[in-house]
Amino acid sequence: MCGINGVVHTDRRHPVDRELLRRLTSTLAHRGPDADGFFWGEGAALGHRRLSIIDLSTGDQPIYNEDRSKVVVLNGEIYNFRELRAELARRGHRFSSQSDTEVIVHGWEEWGDGCVARLRGMFAIALWDGGARRLLLARDRVGKKPLYYVHDGERLLFGSELKALLNDPSVKRVVSAEALDDYLTFGAVPAPRTVYAGIHQLAPAHYLVWEDGRVRTVEYWDPTSVGPAAKRTEVEYLEEFEAIFSEAVRLRLISDVPLGAFLSGGVDSSAVVAAMAAQSERPVVTTTITFPDSAQDEAPHARTVARSLGTDHTEVVVEPRAVDVLPRLVWHLDEPFADSSAVPSYYVARAARRRVTVALSGDGGDEVFGGYEWRYGMNLLEARVRRLIPGPLRRGILGPLSTVWPKADRLPRRLRWKAFLRNLSLPPEEAYFNDMSLFTARDKQALCTADFRRNLGGYTPFTTFRGHFDRVQGRDHLSRILYVDLKTYLPNDILVKMDRMAMASSLEVRSPLLDHRVIEFAAALPSEFKYRQGTSKYLLKRFAERRVPSSAVHRPKMGFSIPLAGWLRGELRGTAQDLLLSDRSAGRGYFEADQVHGMWTRHQAGVRDHSHHLWAPMMLELWHRQFVDQTPTPTAPGIA
Question: Is the peptide bond preceding residue 292 cis, with omega within 30 degrees of 0?
Fold first, then answer.
């Protein structure tokens, strides 16, 4: 994996600030600790940090075409580079390396901007044509690799991480109220917005063209373009999936450095490791972690799978020091991020990096094949009931009833019938939006100050969310919510977490279940093969149960979590109290102090578990201190 950055000026005579570009590049050293490289042109420059994976001897970047008129830098991997290289060689292109990166610049020569759609992999790319003074930026289909930019008409500045761009003093750290509202809703800031006004993310499956000081973006892929699959038997679907998935795994085994896998003992990682083992001559190197006294210990399940597949397995017992590690995680995450599973993700990546440079993961199985049993199951139940009850009855009785049922909110999440009743009174898009919201609109009304809400000017995150639903209008309900997750939760939370936490340890993570051909297969698959009679990920489980013990396939989903509630009452209590209740945090003007204090008091007394609602403002405040106030932290950030 690598880090890229660069700048282009509308005026070709404008000098490039070389010292600034070197600072931007050095900030990305954790993404590429092995080498750096630069291109310097007229009013343009590119920078690169390299984590050497393929072609260790001649693969340094930037890489040029034959006459050096075009140049490319890449963050990521192109898995089908050998096929593309052979095709381009037949067309007369001459190669100077064995690198996957070189096929991109020759592909651009041959196919123009359409070359991006031919790439199979994870990537953020910058291509510069010096003669035409034209820049192309591109991001992979699901957003595994990040890319940020600032454009003011006079120049475009871009980089793999926000913190790199902040090296430029002209880039202002102005917090966007809309982005904070997004953060409170989703626990992360979704593309194309960032937490800073004026800095943007390139959205997944898009490329950006800069020419003559103007910018345009183009979407080059969407799974909705794939029509429904022809009706087949379960055996035929399984055979097709096995062929596509096995190829996706095979392509991700290409590496000139040590390679292994994360193994939790769940369905997704077990399926990946099983497919690796079937194609590997040596035992697959697998890693799992466990926290002492954790109710979410998956190590015994991982051990069972490892034995059955004969892997070279390592278990790492982690004694987490959350107080020490949080400042480092916030630095790597770049933006406010409320998913506490970033903590175990950091530790498993660090443990794996001791033995390998590349690790395959099971990321994407839940969002592609329907793995969130409670969320998808409840939504499907709501959809069935919604069809049976007339709209006026649902809106006129069930909604008001949900507000007066006195003890419904005290029930466990799986039994929160108050939310169920409220969702029945809403259109399906709004109901799923509520389910996906960390803080609902009603929650934010109570939590946020009047000044903050006034600054939003009527903005609501639901508008974009509903747009994704509208795009798959007419499809069955499960297909629609899986599409929305693919466009929102997956790229904005799951993939951000894995990319930043893996890069903190200079580890490349590859996800075969997120191969775009796997996604297209699943998008066309009838929903009954994804969620059937309470069984989530039905077809993926049918694939896995032929290869690993049944106990790993048919067991309750545990999730990748930390004992957050206990930490906030224990080792993190002092830190949390300062971040949540200090005059400094109250002075931000975002939250009503009495509301935050009330959540804190109830949590400490054990009356309610408010851990996730407390974690979000905690991480926001810690981010604010590091990146806006620029207060030095007790643990210096940098390479893990």
Answer: no
Measured CA to CA, the distance from residue 360 to residue 285 in angstroms comes to 10
Please provide the distance, in angstroms rounded to a whole number, between the alpha carbons at the two ends of the chain: 15
**Residues 450-473: tens digit of each pLDDT:** 999 999 999 999 999 999 999 999
Find the length of the chain. 640
Give the closest residue to 301 by CA, choosing from 607, 558, 624.
558
CA distance 51 to 629: 32
- Rounding to the nearest 10 degrees, give the CA dihedral for residues 488, 491, 495, 500: -110
d(CA 73, CA 63): 7
Tokens of 530: 């994804």
Residue pLDDT, tens place only, 114-149: 999 999 999 999 999 999 999 999 999 999 999 999
- What's the alpha-carbon Rg for the chain, to the nearest Å? 24
CA separation for the pair 339, 188 (Å, rounded): 8
Amino acid at 219: E
Give me the chain's average pLDDT, please: 90
Which residues are annotated as catalytic?
2
Which of 271, 224, 340 is CA-nearest to residue 616?
Answer: 340
DSSP letter (8 states) at residue 529: G
Burial of 540-555, coded b for 16+ CB within 10 Å and e otherwise, reads: bbbbbbebbbeebbee
Within 8 A by CB and 6+ apart from 60, the residues are: 35, 37, 50
